UniProtKB/TrEMBL annotation:
Keyword annotations from UniProtKB, A to Z: Amino-acid biosynthesis, Aromatic amino acid biosynthesis, Membrane, NAD, Oxidoreductase, Transmembrane, Transmembrane helix, Tyrosine biosynthesis
Reactions accelerated catalytically: prephenate + NAD(+) = 3-(4-hydroxyphenyl)pyruvate + CO2 + NADH
EC assignment: 1.3.1.12
Protein name: Prephenate dehydrogenase
Entry GO MF terms: NAD+ binding; prephenate dehydrogenase (NAD+) activity; prephenate dehydrogenase (NADP+) activity
Pfam family, one: ACT
Transmembrane feature ranges: 21-39
Domain Prephenate/arogenate dehydrogenase: 23-311
SUPFAM superfamilies: 6-phosphogluconate dehydrogenase C-terminal domain-like (SSF48179), ACT-like (SSF55021), NAD(P)-binding Rossmann-fold domains (SSF51735)
């Protein structure tokens, strides 16, 4: 396993920009989020990335993939002399790691932060600890994906997303500025919120949708057990609103349990919505139903543009493809010859008696629209 490299100590009175040329960043738990942050920082002048893992194979993988400069199974070694420490494990482990890191010798001025999807309980834990010359500032990058693990890490994950910080009223503004400046490498927009308010809002716009997606998929899966046509016919709308149901079970178990008090209220409010639909259908209240769609459309149309909300936008096209050899090659060749960059391709359903559904993913809207034009020209039925 690679060792943490020796590095120069910054002078205490150097301006922040100068210190940027020699800083150690420790990432505790190098998965999707920790790894993506590491990739944002890695290779920037003077920044050294050290990953801590609890498994040798994962430590090795994080170095092999070029996500961190070095990796260690020793928490003490990882945090020793670190200027910034990012706690990036599932929420259920964050408070324990916070206590363990706090108990270790930390560099003067070290900023400890986390990336957990909930903020209130870790802020409360941090408040109980005496940080002396170090400090804790809670954080939550409001972008992610249904994928997990270091293999899914990408430096583009946070671009244009919000990155919430939850400093205490007494946190030194210079420390907040230092963390914000480091986070500029993510190209996310940093905002500060009070931890309780964060959990209420994020519970509603991220955690509740994950519950609804999972409940919906499991409901349909139950019907599918008695008739496989449910999955075969599952179309765009179902796919659109259930992508996040494929999220990591451990990560989401921890988030939901941690934010359970907000979620219990949110689910009761959700029940009111469901009951109201039941009532409108029983009364055949067409006007009431249309009004709800109109209201929802108005609100949704005002949502921030692509990738600025908690649920990152994907640039996917779907097309029905006949199940015959060579079709994938033809599509990729045509796109390649027209200079379209395809970032992923997936056959979702492939059986002899039905056309296959192909999903083509692109990095941005421009590539997606170029592909749409090429494929429509080839007389494929293309839909987003
Ligand atoms: N998944 C998402 O879209 C987002 C997740 N978050 C937050 O980021 C944090 C990490 O989530 P992901 O990166 O998605 O999960 P992940 O599963 O990709 O990464 C978690 C990492 O923690 C490591 N880990 C697990 N148990 C450990 C232990 N006992 N000791 C040390 N390391 C351990 C895993 O090996 C893995 O590298 C969570 O707190 C989550 O709430 C924040 C924003 C978005
Ligand atoms: O996959 C998606 O679109 C998400 O919902 C991303 C996400 C997941 C967890 C977070 O705490 C923040 C953002």
């Amino acid at each position: 396993m690679a060792q943490v490299r020796a590095r120069q100590q910054p002078e205490r009175n150097e301006p922040y920009e100068a210190r940027l040329t020699s800083m150690k960043i420790a990432v505790i738990g190098v998965g999707l989020i920790g790894g993506s942050l590491a990739l944002c920082f890695r290779g920037k002048p003077g920044l050294e990335l050290v990953g801590y893992s609890n498994r040798q194979d994962l430590a090795d993988l994080s170095v092999e993939l070029g996500v961190v400069d070095s990796a260690t199974l020793s928490l003490e070694e990882a945090v020793q002399d670190a200027d910034f420490i990012f706690l990036s494990t599932p929420v259920g482990l964050l408070e324990t790691y916070l206590e363990q890191v706090h108990a270790l010798p930390l560099k003067k001025g070290c900023i400890v932060t986390d990336v957990g999807s909930t903020k209130d309980s870790i802020a409360a834990k941090a408040r109980q600890l005496d940080w002396e010359d170090a400090c804790f500032i809670g954080g939550h990058p409001m972008a992610g994906s249904e994928r997990s693990g270091v293999q899914a890490a990408t430096s583009l994950l946070f671009e244009n997303a919000y990155y919430v910080l939850t400093p205490e009223p007494g946190t030194d503004p210079a420390r907040i500025a230092a963390l914000t400046e480091l986070l500029s490498h993510t190209r996310a927009k940093v905002i500060c919120l009070e931890p309780g308010q964060h959990d209420e809002i994020v519970g509603a716009i991220s955690h509740l949708p994950h519950i609804i997606a999972v409940a919906l998929v499991n409901q349909i899966s139950g019907y599918h057990d008695s008739n496989p046509l449910y999955r075969t016919l599952a179309a765009g709308g179902f796919r659109d609103i259930t992508r996040i149901a494929s999220s990591d079970p451990v990560v989401w178990r921890d988030i939901l349990l941690n934010n359970r008090f907000n979620l219990l209220k949110l689910l009761r409010d959700w029940n009111v919505q469901v009951e109201s639909f039941i009532d409108q259908l029983e009364r055949e209240d067409g006007e009431g139903i249309s009004a709800r769609f109109r209201d929802a459309g108005d609100f949704r149309d005002e949502l921030p543009e692509r990738r600025k909300g908690a649920i990152a936008k994907t640039y996917d096209l779907y097309l029905d493809v006949p199940d015959h050899p060579g079709i994938i090659g033809r599509i990729t060749t045509e796109l390649g010859s027209q200079g379209v960059n395809l970032s992923n391709l997936q056959i979702i359903e492939s059986r002899e008696d039905v056309p296959g559904l192909m999903r083509l993913s692109f990095r941005d809207e421009i590539q997606m629209e170029r592909a749409r034009k090429v494929l429509t020209g080839l007389e494929f039925d293309v839909y987003a």
